[in-house]
Design a protein that fits this description.
Chain B: One of its GO terms (biological process) is electron transport coupled proton transport. Chain B: Belongs to the heme-copper respiratory oxidase family. Chain B: Keywords: Cell membrane, Copper, Electron transport, Heme, Iron, Membrane, Metal-binding, Respiratory chain, Translocase, Transmembrane, Transmembrane helix, Transport. The complex is a heterodimer of chains A (200) and B (552). Chain A has 200 residues and is mainly alpha-helical. In chain A, 79% of the residues lie in helices and 0% in strands. Chain A contains six helices and no strands. In chain A, helix 2 packs antiparallel against helix 5 and helix 5 packs antiparallel against helix 6. The radius of gyration of chain A is 21 Å and the shape is elongated. The N and C termini of chain A lie far apart (65 Å). Chain B is mostly helical and 552 residues long. Helices cover 67% and strands 0% of the residues of chain B. In chain B, helix 3 packs antiparallel against helix 5, helix 3 packs across helix 15 and helix 10 runs antiparallel to helix 12. The longest helix of chain B has 37 residues. Chain B starts with 8 loop residues before the first helix and ends with a helix. The chains are: A mainly alpha (200), B mainly alpha (552). At the A-B interface, helix 1, helix 2 and helix 5 of A face helix 7, helix 8 and helix 9 of B. Bound molecules: protoporphyrin IX containing FE (HEM) and copper (II) ion.
C-alpha cells in the first residue's frame, strides 16, 4: 500500500542519500564531462582524418593568423586562474572577493567570445566554402557554444553568491565547484583545439 | 559574513506525488515506477516496430514491389530498424530493468540522481512520437537506420532531419541513464557490500554504461555534422563538395558497434540472474564472468571497422579488425560455458522464464558463430549487404535481447505486480516465438549466401519460396504476441497471488514484499553478500531471519 506519508518518508531518504554522499554530484558531473569530451574527440578525429586523406586547400591558400587565437588562449588560461582564485576566496570566507573573481572570470570568457567573433569576421573563408572551412567552423563553433554556456553558468553562480541569504557558502559550494570544473574542462579542450587547428 | 541556509523547499516537495496506479502515468521520481514506464513504453514501440516488420514481410512474399511503393518500403524499413533499436531494445534492457533492479542490488532506496532519471525517461515518448509522425507529415527518413551519406543527404530532407533530432534526444536519454547507473553502482553501494559481491546484472550495467558514456556522444556529434550537411549544405560527408563518406562510417560504427553490446550485455546480466534461480545452483565462475564483461567492453570499443571491410579499408586495417573481432569470441565463449555449467546438474524447473533464457543461449550461439564468420574478410566480402547479415543480426538482437526481455518479464512479473503469470500461456508464447523466430530468420542465411541483397523491395524470383517461408515465420512471431498480451493483462487482475518470493530467490529485490513498498524496504536493506548462494551452508548467516523462516 502506498500512502502519501510513505512517499514523504522516501523523499526524506533520498535527501539524506545525497547528503551522505557529498561527492556524488561531482562524480556525476565528471562522467558527463567524459561524455562531452568524447564528442570533441569524435570531432578531432574527423578533422584529423579529413586533413590526412582529403586535399585541404588552406595549407596552401590560407595562412591562419596566429595573434588572435594566441590572445584567446591567454584569455582562457588566465580565466582558469581567476576562477581558481574565486574558489580560494570562498574557502577563506571572503565572499566579496569571491564575487569579484567570478565576475572577472566571466568577463574574460566574454572577451574570448568577442575576440572569436572578430576572428570569424576577418577570416577569408565562410562555413560552406570547403571541407576545411566547414570543419574549422564546426570545431571552433562547438567550443564557442561551450564557452557561452560556461559564461552563463559563471554569471548564475555569481548571482547566487551575491544574493542576500546567499546560496553559495562554504557549506554549499557545489554550484561553484561544478562551474569551475566545467570551466577548466572547456579551457583544456581549447588548448587541444588550438594545437590541432592552428599549430599542426 | 554569516549566511543561514534556507530550507530547501524544492527537495522536500519530492514527496508530493500521486499514489496508486496513477503514479505510473505521472512524472514520478521513484526508480520502480520509472523502470516500469520504460518497459511499457518500450513494449508499445515494439508493437509498432513489429507491425512495420510484418508490412516488410508481406511486401517480400512476392518478388515484385506490389504491397507498397518503393520509397514507402524504404521508410517502413528505416522506421522499423530505428524503432527496434533506439526505442525498444536499448531503453528496455538498460532503462527498464536497470532502473527497477539496480537500486535493489546495491542496497539503495533510489538511483543516484532521481530527477535526471525521470528526465531521461521522459525524453523517449516525444522522440518516438516525433519519429513516427514524420511518416505522416512529409515522409519519414529513407536511408535505413544507419543513415549513410550520401543517401541521407540526397533523400528528402524533412524526414531525415526529424530522424536525426529524434536519435539525438534518445542518445541524450541514454547518456543520462548511463551516468546515473555508473554513479549508482559505484557510489551508492550499501556499506559492507563489495563490488565482487554484486549480482552479475550490476556488472553488466556498469560495463554497458561505460560503453554508453564513451560512444554515444560520438554518434551525437556525427549526426550534428550530418544535419549541417543537410541544412546548411556544408560538405563534411558529401563527396561532391570534397567531403568524405568513409569518415561518417568510422564515426557511426564507433557508436553502433558498441551499441550491439549496449543491447546484449544487459541481456547477459539478466540471464545470469535468471538461470541460477531456476536451476537452484550458484552462478558458475562469478569472477570469470566479471572479467569477461570487462573484456567485452574493451574489445567492443576497438572493432568497429569490421562493418567497413567493403568500404575500401586498407589491408592492414582489415587484418587488425578481423583479429580484434575474432578475439571477442573468447570472453563471449566463457560466458556461454558458464551459463551451461550453471544449468548443468541443476534442479531445473522448466518454466517460461528459463525456457526463454535457454532459447536465448541457443539463438545467441548461432548468431555468434555467424558473427565470427562475418569477421573474416573474404567471407564478409561475399555476403556483405545480403540477407545473411540480416539473419545474423536478428539472431543477436531478437534471438538474444528480445528473448531475454521476455524471460525477464516472466521472471520479475511477480515482483512487479505480486501476481503470477499463467504458465500454460507462457509456454505457448515461447513455442510460437521460438519456432516463428527460427522459421523467419534461419532461411535468410540461405538467401544471403545465394546473393539476395538486403534493403530492397524487389528480388530475383528464384528466392520467392524461401521468402514465403520466412514470412510465415514472421506471422507466427506476430501471433505469439497475443497469448503474451492476454497473459500479462489477465494475470494483473485475475492472476494467482505470488507471495513475496515465489522463486525462493536470494537476490535482494526478492527480500522485500511484492510489489515492493515505495521505500524499497521497510527498515534497513538486507546485506546480501552471496546473491547466488543456493545450496551453500553459510547461507543462513548472510540472509535475514525473516527470509529464512519464509523459506522454512
Ligand atoms: C518481430 C520480428 C522481426 C521481423 C519479422 C523483422 C524483419 C525485418 C526485415 C524483413 C528487415 C529488412 C531487412 C533488409 O531489407 O535489410 C529488417 C531489418 C531490420 N531489423 Fe528487423 N525484424 C524483426 C525484429 C527486429 C528486432 C527486435 C530488432 C531489434 C533491434 C530489429 C532490427 C532490425 C534492424 C536494425 C534492421 C535493419 C534496418 C535497416 O537496414 O535500416 N528487427 N527486419
Ligand atoms: Cu560490429
Amino acid at each position: 500500500m502506498t500512502t502519501i506519508s510513505s512517499v514523504d518518508k522516501k523523499a526524506e531518504e533520498l535527501t539524506s542519500q545525497t547528503e551522505e554522499h557529498p561527492d556524488l554530484r561531482l562524480f556525476g558531473l565528471v562522467s558527463f564531462l567524459v561524455a562531452d569530451g568524447m564528442t570533441f574527440a569524435g570531432f578531432f578525429a574527423a578533422y584529423l582524418t579529413f586533413k590526412a586523406v582529403n586535399p585541404l586547400l588552406p595549407d596552401a591558400i590560407y595562412e591562419l593568423e596566429l595573434p588572435l587565437p594566441t590572445l584567446n588562449t591567454i584569455l582562457l588560461l588566465v580565466s582558469s586562474a581567476t576562477f581558481h582564485r574565486a574558489g580560494k576566496a570562498l574557502e577563506a570566507k571572503e565572499s566579496e572577493k569571491c564575487q569579484r573573481w567570478l565576475l572577472i572570470t566571466a568577463g574574460l570568457g566574454i572577451a574570448f567570445l568577442v575576440s572569436q567573433m572578430f576572428e570569424y569576421f576577418t577570416l577569408p573563408f565562410g562555413l560552406t566554402d570547403n571541407l576545411y572551412a566547414s570543419t574549422f567552423y564546426a570545431l571552433t563553433g562547438f567550443h564557442g557554444l561551450h564557452v557561452t554556456l560556461g559564461a552563463i553558468m559563471i554569471l548564475i553562480v555569481w548571482w547566487q553568491a551575491r544574493s542576500p541569504g546567499g546560496r553559495i557558502t562554504t557549506e554549499n559550494k557545489f554550484p561553484l565547484e561544478a562551474a569551475e570544473l566545467y570551466w577548466h574542462f572547456v579551457d583544456g579542450i581549447w588548448v587541444i583545439l588550438f594545437i590541432i587547428l592552428y599549430l599542426l | 559574513m554569516s549566511i543561514s541556509v534556507p530550507p530547501n523547499t524544492e527537495q522536500s516537495s519530492k514527496g508530493i506525488q500521486p499514489t496508486g496506479w496513477l503514479r505510473y502515468f505521472s512524472f514520478s521520481l521513484d526508480h520502480k515506477v520509472i523502470g516500469l514506464q520504460y518497459l511499457v513504453c518500450g513494449f508499445i514501440f515494439y508493437l509498432i516496430g513489429g507491425a512495420l516488420a510484418s508490412a516488410i514481410r508481406i511486401e517480400l512474399t512476392s518478388p515484385i514491389s506490389d504491397f507498397m511503393p518503393r520509397d514507402v518500403y524504404n521508410q517502413v524499413l528505416t522506421l522499423h530498424g530505428t524503432i527496434m533499436i533506439f526505442l525498444w531494445i536499448v531503453p528496455v534492457v538498460n532503462g527498464a530493468f536497470g532502473n527497477y533492479l539496480i537500486p535493489f542490488y546495491v542496497g539503495a532506496r533510489d538511483m543516484a540522481f532521481p530527477r535526471l532519471n525521470a528526465v531521461a525517461f521522459w525524453l523517449i515518448p516525444p522522440a518516438g512520437l516525433m519519429l513516427i509522425s514524420s511518416y505522416f507529415i512529409n515522409g519519414a527518413a529513407q536511408s535505413g537506420w544507419t543513415a549513410y551519406p550520401p543517401l541521407s543527404i540526397t533523400t528528402p530532407a524533412a524526414g531525415q532531419i526529424v530522424w536525426i533530432l529524434s536519435v539525438l534526444l534518445l542518445g541524450g536519454s541514454s547518456i543520462f541513464g548511463g551516468i546515473n547507473f555508473i554513479a549508482t553502482i559505484l557510489k551508492l553501494r550499501r556499506p559492507g557490500l563489495k563490488l565482487m559481491q554484486l549480482p552479475m546484472y550490476c556488472w553488466a550495467m556498469l560495463g554497458t554504461s561505460i560503453l554508453v558514456v564513451l560512444s554515444t556522444p560520438v554518434l551525437a556529434g556525427t549526426l550534428i555534422l550530418l544535419s549541417f550537411d543537410i541544412v546548411a549544405h556544408t560538405g563534411f560527408f558529401n563527396p561532391s563538395l570534397g567531403g568524405n563518406v568513409i569518415v561518417y562510417q568510422h564515426l557511426f560504427w564507433f557508436y553502433s558497434h558498441p551499441a550491439v553490446y549496449i543491447m546484449v550485455l544487459p541481456a547477459f546480466g539478466l540471464v545470469s540472474e535468471i538461470l541460477p534461480v531456476h536451476s537452484r545452483k550458484p552462478l558458475f565462475g562469478y569472477a570469470t564472468m566479471v572479467y569477461s564483461i570487462m573484456g567485452i567492453v574493451v574489445l567492443g570499443l576497438v572493432v568497429w571497422a569490421h562493418h567497413m571491410f567493403t568500404s575500401g579499408t586498407p589491408p592492414w586495417m582489415r587484418l587488425f579488425f578481423t583479429i580484434a573481432t575474432s578475439f571477442i569470441a573468447v570472453p563471449t565463449g566463457i560466458k556461454f560455458f558458464n551459463w551451461v555449467a550453471t544449468l548443468w546438474g541443476g534442479r531445473i524447473s522448466l518454466n517460461s522464464a528459463i525456457l526463454f533464457s535457454c532459447g536465448f543461449i541457443v539463438n545467441f550461439v548461432l548468431g555468434g558463430i555467424t558473427g565470427v564468420a562475418l569477421a573474416q574478410v573474404p567471407f564478409d566480402v561475399h555476403v556483405h549487404d545480403t540477407y545473411f547479415v540480416v539473419a545474423h543480426f536478428h539472431y543477436i538482437v531478437y534471438g538474444g535481447s528480445v528473448f531475454v526481455i521476455f524471460s525477464s518479464i516472466y521472471h520479475w512479473y511477480p515482483k512487479f505486480t505480486g501476481k503470477m503469470l499463467d504458465e500454460k500461456l507462457g509456454k505457448i508464447h515461447f513455442l510460437l516465438t521460438f519456432i516463428g523466430f527460427n522459421l523467419c530468420f534461419a532461411p535468410q542465411h540461405w538467401l544471403g549466401l545465394n546473393g539476395m541483397p538486403r534493403r530492397v523491395a524487389e528480388y530475383d524470383p528464384q528466392f520467392t519460396f524461401v521468402n514465403q517461408i520466412s514470412s510465415v515465420g514472421a506471422l507466427l512471431m506476430a501471433l505469439s504476441t497475443l497469448p503474451f498480451l492476454w497473459n500479462v493483462f489477465h494475470s494483473a487482475f485475475r492472476g494467482e497471488s505470488s507471495g513475496d518470493n515465489p522463486w525462493q530467490a536470494l537476490t535482494p529485490e526478492w527480500l522485500t514484499s511484492s510489489p515492493p513498498p515505495v521505500e524499497n524496504w521497510v527498515g534497513e536493506p538486507p546485506l546480501v553478500t552471496k546473491p547466488y548462494g543456493y545450496g551453500q551452508s553459510q547461507l543462513s548467516k548472510e540472509i535475514p531471519n525473516s527470509f529464512i523462516e519464509d523459506k522454512k
